[in-house]
Amino acid sequence: MAQYFEVHPDNPQPRLLKQAVALLNGGGVLAVPTDSSYAIACHLDDKTAADRLRKIRNVDDKHHLTLLCRDLSELASYARVDNRQYRLLKTATPGPFTFILEATREVPRRVSHPQRKTIGLRVPDHAALQALLEMHGAPLLATTLIEPSEHEPLNDPEEIRRRFERTLDGVIGAGACPHEPTTVIDLTPMGNGDQAVVLREGRGDWHTLGL
């Protein structure tokens, strides 16, 4: 049965986040609010939890998972970023964008793309999630919460609680999130002097990034 943590979206209660972090550190997979929709997340270094995360979403190892990072400096520890890429990231973070970048050695190989050695990264603009990441002290491995038979992400924590009470270990309910996934942008071509590629149009307006 999933534990339910009802937190204030702007001033989340530390004691509840502490309990959620304990679940993550114990191998739990949790639904978390973001500035796009809800996502499911787990500890980066927990192989069993990462496997469960993929199973819940029904995706294989070629599906890019995402690291939820506290800030741009943390993101740069887990991805190889050149000057052009960094300038674009600085413009777009925090915000509802996911960026595909080459992973550093800090990223376990089992969670990066098996052929490309890339990983998704984002810095979310959501106070409750930022507080959770700060208390956790490291990025979380995540993916948008979309049921395998559906195409739209979930944004209502009560509905998530009903649908996944026997699948997830916890739900951090911070009210309804926007009902739209992130915009996904592949920045790896920029490393070869080419332009970034928009892989999915979502909540983030990529036109504002000068692409």
List descriptors.
single chain; alpha/beta; DHBP synthase; 10-stranded mixed beta sheet; 6 helices; 10 strands
Structure description:
A hairpin with a 6-residue loop joins strand 2 (30-32) and strand 3 (39-43). It is built from six helices and ten strands; from the N terminus they run βαββαβααββαβαβββ. It has a ten-stranded mixed sheet with strand order 1-8-2-3-7-4-6-5-9-10, sandwiched between helices. The termini are far apart. The chain has helices at residues 14-25, 47-57, 72-78, 83-92, 127-136, 157-164; strands at 3-6, 30-32, 39-43, 66-68, 97-102, 118-122, 140-144, 170-173, 183-186, 197-200. By secondary structure, the chain is of the alpha/beta class. Helix 1 (14-25) crosses helix 5 (127-136). The chain has a single domain, classed as DHBP synthase (Alpha-Beta Complex). The model has no long low-confidence stretch (mean pLDDT 94).
